[in-house]
Design brief:
By secondary structure, the chain is of the alpha/beta class. It has helices at 2-8, 33-36, 62-74, 86-94, 109-114, 155-166, 182-190, 201-210, 235-245, 248-263, 267-272, 284-291, 298-309, 329-334, 345-362, 369-382, 384-396, 404-413, 418-421, 434-451, and strands at 13-16, 21-25, 41-45, 53-55, 58-60, 78-82, 100-106, 115-124, 126-131, 147-151, 172-176, 196-200, 214-215, 224-231.
Amino acid sequence: MIIRFLVGLMVFLWSCTSDMQEVDSTGIAEENASAFAADTLHVATRYGSSSYFTFRGEVIGYDVELSQHFAAYLGKPVRYHLARTNDQLYDWLEEGKVDLVAYDVYQSRELKKRFRFVAMQPESHLVLVQMIGVNTVTTIPELKGKTIHVTENSPQLKRLKSLNRELGGSINIVIVPDTVSSDDLIDQVLKKDIEFTVAYHNKAIQYKEHNRRMDCRLQIGFSQRNGWLIANHRTELEQALKAWEALPQTELFRSQLYSKYIVRNPYFTSSRLSIPRGAISPFDHLFKKYAAEIGWDWRLLAAIAFHESGFDSSQISRRGASGLMQLMPRTAANFGLSRANITNPEKNIEAGVQYIKSLNLLYRKVEDPDERKKFILASYNSGPAHILDAMELARKHGKNPYVWHEHVEVYLEKKSDPEYYKDEVVKYGRFRAAETIRYVRNTLSTYQKFKGE
């Protein structure tokens, strides 16, 4: 079971389009996918800030990553189906089209009769979402005369109707289709397209962390439990879920996801970007300008920035790397940047290109320009020291020290093995290469996508 669990953790997602939109695990070759169909975990969810979204070319989200973790425990690939409405989620589950609904579903009498709630999440309560100002509503009686937008067939609508009766029918409730999500309505409040909506506090507080003028203090409902759904007859799936939840590694993983999606959710980085139509990023003109200095296709420079910062010029990593090109303070200082201007988009790109220029000089003996780019990308991610070690190991073991794939890449990976990192030709010790190897492959793959190939 442990081996199957670890193997399953390597499963990733990729998307395709259909009426029932699906995301297949990239760990399965397309021609072999049908062989796994009968042994695939089918998961339904909806697009949203805590469930499913795309960031840096990958599909992620709290519910996506947690359900991937469960699929890994089962030793199954996972396929995601994107629903347009909550009712569609429920229909798919009842019709047996999916095994599991991984989405914030709050308990109600009706739903508890229809399905089994599993993988329970922390309780939450409904709050009024509005912008802070002179007319901010601070008490429930002040809802009289206000226009509040909520989705049809939702707990928000049910609670608002109840409050409306208590207040004598004076709230103007605007009911929008269930295809409009809670995230959509909060976004409309933030854009001042609507004045009020109702959301669960656990979702609203995520937006509050990134929009200080948003207010979600007024509680208008009691705490409710929420979780995922499975069909009533799927007792074997319920037992598997309980066993998975009891694992220490599941508890640890959940706490890590909480930090990732509640404390610093990447959804809000991606949603802040305003990318012109037909462009790769808001900074295409700068990538074009500075890529010319090193003779690169500007789209490769854009691919580096995409994987480094997601085109977020204000990004600062836990290690202190800053800006679009994620330059460490010392590297930035070497190329003329200070703490005051390190996140300036143009100066950050310019300094990043100067660093690439220095790496290009370092690897001048790699004559093939495409090969040299791979060495530069690897060094951009990890620094050149370990790459130089791997080149010497490749040379010693009869491989070509100037070819990346199946040559230097292999020996970079071997630098986690004492037999290799203690070799006399190695000057910089042990290194775990998985991230760097993925970085080179993913950046080149993104570059191909940016070129439309």
